[in-house]
């Protein structure tokens, strides 16, 4: 154990129907997982990084399916705001893909991870400032609940805590499976949202 602890879905008892609380908690989980990856080495770093990749993949996919479409429709200047966020998400996914092909103990790994972390943090702050505030103000209860359900469906695919006995079996998960994960996240989110 590294002595670090990553909060897990449900720890904060966030209300199931508050999509903004769920999104903010995921931003916190992502930040904590970056901490874990940086603090660990060897097998522990590989495990923590795998969890970070999964959470980032499902979080960004869920935002693309749920949050950005809502902001695009309802936010003044929403088109431009969302295009900026999508460009940041594309860049982050490319860096993530490159990192995923590296050995986590490669000396070049950590500097790239730190750069990604700063990009992801800036991206998250922009979402919180421009999109989440708007969602909280303007979404009706049914819409908030539907978006929260979709987020939960996505989150179920990305455990942020290691599961003994499962992690070692998932050792070979590389980017291919992450792309598959994004696709199945999309399906789960769309199913949870119903026909929109
Ligand atoms: Fe995002
Ligand atoms: Fe986000």
Question: Helices, strands, pairings?
Answer:
Elements: H1 19-39, H2 42-74, H3 78-100, H4 109-138, H5 141-155, H6 175-193
Helix pairs in contact: 1-2, 1-4, 1-5, 2-3, 2-4, 2-5, 2-6, 3-4, 5-6
Bound molecules: fe (ii) ion (2 copies).
One fe (ii) ion (FE2) binds next to helix 2, helix 3 and helix 4.
Task: Tell me about this structure.
- With 196 residues, the protein is mainly α.
- The chain has one domain (19-184).
- The chain has 6 helices and no strands.
- α2 (42-74) runs antiparallel to α5, α3 runs antiparallel to α4 (109-138) and α5 (141-155) packs antiparallel against α6 (175-193).
- Residues 165-175 have low confidence and may be disordered.
- The structure holds fe (ii) ion (2 copies).
- One fe (ii) ion binds at residues 27, 59, 63, 124, 127.
- Residues 19-132 form the Hemerythrin-like domain.
- It comes from Streptomyces fumanus.
- This is Hemerythrin.
Q: Short summary of the structure?
A:
This is Hemerythrin. This protein is mostly helical.
Count up the domains: 1
Q: What does the average pLDDT come to?
A: 83
The secondary-structure element order is HHHHHH
The outline comes out as globular
Helix share bin: over 70%
Largest sheet: none
Protein name: Hemerythrin
Pfam family, one: Hemerythrin
Domain Hemerythrin-like: 19-132
């Amino acid at each position: 154990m590294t002595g670090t602890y990553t909060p897990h879905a449900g720890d904060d008892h966030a209300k199931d129907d508050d999509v903004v609380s769920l999104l903010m908690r995921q931003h916190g989980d992502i930040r904590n997982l970056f901490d874990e990856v940086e603090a660990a080495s060897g097998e522990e770093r590989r495990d923590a990084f795998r969890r970070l990749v999964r959470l980032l993949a499902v979080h960004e996919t869920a935002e693309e399916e749920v949050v950005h479409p809502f902001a695009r429709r309802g936010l003044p200047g929403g088109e431009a705001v969302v295009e900026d966020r999508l460009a940041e998400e594309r860049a982050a996914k490319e860096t993530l893909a490159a990192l995923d092909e590296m050995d986590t103990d490669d000396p070049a790994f950590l500097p790239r991870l730190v750069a990604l972390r700063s990009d992801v943090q800036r991206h998250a702050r922009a979402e919180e400032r421009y999109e989440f505030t708007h969602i909280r103000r303007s979404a009706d209860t049914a819409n908030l609940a539907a978006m929260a359900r979709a987020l939960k469906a996505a989150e179920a695919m990305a455990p942020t805590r290691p599961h003994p006995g499962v992690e070692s079996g998932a050792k070979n998960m590389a980017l291919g499976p992450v792309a598959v994960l994004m696709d199945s996240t999309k399906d789960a989110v769309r199913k949870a949202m119903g026909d929109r």
